[in-house]
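ok so heres the complex, two chains, lmk if somethin looks off
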Amino acid sequence: MNNPSKITPPEDPEEQEAMREIAEEQEEKYGGRDRWILTGVFVVAALCSVWQFSQKQPLALFLLACTVLAAVLAIINWRSWLKKSPGEKNAISSTRFFKNLEIEDCSAPYSEAKFLKLRKAFGRNLALSAIAFMYALGGLMGVAVPQLSVRVISLSIAGAAIFLGRRPAQRVWRAGKGSLACPKCHDLLTSQASHVLRTGRCRKCGTLIITDEVPADAAAENSPEGIETSPAAERTRKRRSSRASRQFKPDQFQYDPRRILDVITLLSVPTFSVYYFGWNRLEGAGRLLIGIMILFTSALFCFMPDKLLGVGSSSFSHFKRGKKDIEPTSESAVSQPERLPLLDFAMMLAFPAAVIIGLSYLVWMHHVLTQLELALLTLCVPGAIVLVSYFVVRHEGHHVKKTGKPAPERFLWSIIALWVLAMFIFVVCLVSLIQKFWLKW
Amino acid sequence: MIYGRQRLSPTDVPTFFSAIAGLFTVKLIHAHDVTRLIVLNVLWLAWLGLISLRAKFHGGKLLSFDCGLYQGFAIAFYLLGLLMACVYYLVYYAG
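and the predicted structre for the whole thing:
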């Protein structure tokens, strides 16, 4: 018997790979790696929002939202980090940020993991060099400003950028000539990373770059015969073939006349509306430009292959498949698709619809809300939505108890959507209230 | 785009058109331009119907995605456009 509370690991290797990738992504985002960076972002955003607030600039509200977001992410990261054991903390490579910038001095062939690590470090250094270059350039351009103080500040910024960007640029240069260059043709391997990861060899000269079993004499192993025989090597080969299936080749463009009809269905009315409502406002060039953009979008939708676009292989579909494994499969569940009861649906939609009709009436009457009216709207609309959803949930609970059938999944999603809407209305109205009547901006 | 990431974004056709339709609906209500208001909303409803009709002959799918996905997002963004425009006209617009 299936236990719904316990998710069994998927047997399909592709699913396992997807689950592993998702877990890695989660760990990278929330595992505590970026706790210091996020704390820094939080402090900077908080200072900027206080500054903007004192200047009475509307940007303060945006910065405040950024501050809250950074604070939440920093707290999650710190919490995850503090929960880890000392062993787990040491296992994370990026405990020290500057250590991650170092590029090891080595030469091909190396393992895939090492290649990825080198590539990541190279990317970081390249990004830092580019940022430093931009700052240096901007600072040097400041020399043209007549004010002496601005000139001094600009030159200081340029000097600091050059000083800080010097090391990353050196690392990039050294790695481009050594660690991340093909030993034979000296081509930069990061520029052909997808090919290298797929085939394990250099695109230009075919030199072996990636292997899971580094031979004693690497040069001798640069033969076309495969050397990968271990289970690890087999896994690598599978990963590569999986990556290869996701690579795009021009001959993969697909042509299906039915898709043209789909695109016409999707774009005909929006296109007609754009030209009908905007004909007098658009110049000749504008009309042409919009036409070209619509044509390009249509072509993209028509000819892009489903395989490349990942239809049916997203994380969401993995989630859905995984969920299907743990759900009990009864005859009724298979034969009858889940439908949201009409009464529930009508009850949930009635209130937002009434609110929008009421607001539209006020717009028609050219009425501008007073402070009291806006405050009432801010409090009452979300409150009423929550109240309505409470009664709908109670009704659905009664329905479930009577029939013995579980509530449809769509019901849950509809309730969540309704609460998100309530939260959105509350935030929009509250911000308007604060901005217009309390801060009087 | 919808195709690259398996989900709709504000710049996709159904979401963008619906949001703009919602915004313009309120603008036309404010301008008391009933004819264009009716034309716009009839067009938008006809478009939803057209999507349903096409999907009916194609296994409920349009461009490999469920027709319900397009319609759900279209309705949600239409309401969002309406709501935002209503707030703008009711709070800030004093014309």
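quick notes: Chain A has a mean pLDDT of 75. thats all i got rn
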